[in-house]
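Hey all, sorry for the wall of text incoming. These are the two entities for the joint prediction.
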Amino acid sequence: MSSFDTSMQLVYVLAAACFVVGLHLMNSPASARRGNQASTLGMVIAGLATLILLIHSNSVTGVGWAVLIVGTAIGSAIGLYSARTVQMTAMPQLVSMFNSVGGGAAALIGIYEYMHDESLHTGVLGTTTVTSVLDVMIGAVTFSGSIVAAGKLQGIIPGQPLIFRGSRLLNIVLAVVVVGTAIFLFTTASLPALFIVLLASLAFGVMMVLPIGGADMPVVISLLNAFTGTAVAMAGFVIANWALIVAGALVGASGGILTKLMADAMNRSLANIIVGGFGTGDAVVAVGPGDASAQVRSIAADDAAIQLAYASKVIIVPGYGLAAAQAQHGVAELASLLESRGIEVSYAIHPVAGRMPGHMNVLLAEANVPYPQLVEMEEVNPEFARTDVALVIGANDVTNPAARRAGTAISGMPILDVDQSRSIIVIKRSMGHGYAGLDNELYVDPKTSMYFADAKKAMQELAAAVKTLVG
Amino acid sequence: MSTALVTDLTIFVLALLVGIEVIGKVPATLHTPLMSATNSIHGIVLAGALLIGVTAHSVAGYILAFVAAVFASANVVGGYVVTGRMLKMFKRRTPPLEKASDQ
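and here's what came out:
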């Protein structure tokens, strides 16, 4: 390695260090913005180093420069536009698309380096083959899988699990083709074989995400995030660049941790989620005895408002239904109205509330809810016992006490102990089932009142009722 | 195995461990910005995409470099902007609410 190459590699290590510092500063909302700035600084350093390398190499052709500059300009414009205009409810789709293009770019780097090495007299080296093939494989699965995930989240592709006859067999065939061709490549250099790996991996990515249902999306996005990181690290191996290796490993670790947290929060194994088909109705188990005779008590806006206005502690339990109804601003208004009466208000956030990890927090932060009010499950659960009213909005399975019993589809899933509060108001459009296809035993609890309405409308009615009530 | 590959693998494994250590401390409240932040970090793939230009002297090379540059730059620019936008929304308390709770 020449001294120039060495110093450039060290500059890349500096950039990687900035990424680590940036992620470290994300350990609290107060320092997180500085974290993003540290990370941005690292990226600027890496960009400048790359520019110096390109100029110093003195072998980029005129066409090459034009291609790079125009490509970067177009990509930046697309990225900037989508980042500025995206709605916070659509954040999971955008993150998924960034996973997709990141994985896609990593795969393209692998393909190019393989093509380039093959044209040289030395041929493709063994280690280059292994890393290139892994890069193309993981990058391609991420690329197509993330597009399907984004399509499902956007509603372009149906959110229900899509399974057709022989789809699992097709998955196995694709996996065998990918692995088989990869093994062949380790012994024989062949560009067509690499393209077979590419195409089969793209198909596998699509087939992997299609059978996964909407509420399992937090797991899928986290997993694809981990894949993107791994693909980028592999690209780093291929071109021997430490910044790519470190950044890829960091993202891989993050995605892996989030995947595990999300799967644990649903008490389901990753394998069970990937096999898919959850929530199609075939997993329904009979509910405990005596529930058929239980009566549901419904309540009107005025009565609900009285309960809320004369409480001293209220916990709001938001679920994805809140975001779907665009009711987050209405909730925040009602909460600040209650707070102005001296009522203690907080939000209980289940780890899988929303369509990606932490999604509900962002939606509420956008509605100006101060972050100290957003309380995680372990912290908020002991609070329910001294809560006067728990207001459940658009959350279902995560509040179902049936999870504490054995033998139901959600048994063992950690839930919010909403049923411990003195009274419960559930806002829901109808008695429909949640994702797991189960009856929610909370709804027939004698302490529970059902307020049947659209969440957004319900918030307006409640706020108006509280105002007239207390002047 | 070459020394270079061993070095690269060592870096990879150590970075993975650092990642696990650092990310384990991020609170659940910030998981969406965290994922978005890691998204922008894997935008470093742009460096790899641009470096294709050093050896690309054929039409196929130019096409691959172009598509990779578009993908990677969308990733990196979009990732940082949207993370910043999200983190700006996390506030301890908004001024009008402060007044209200004082009453």
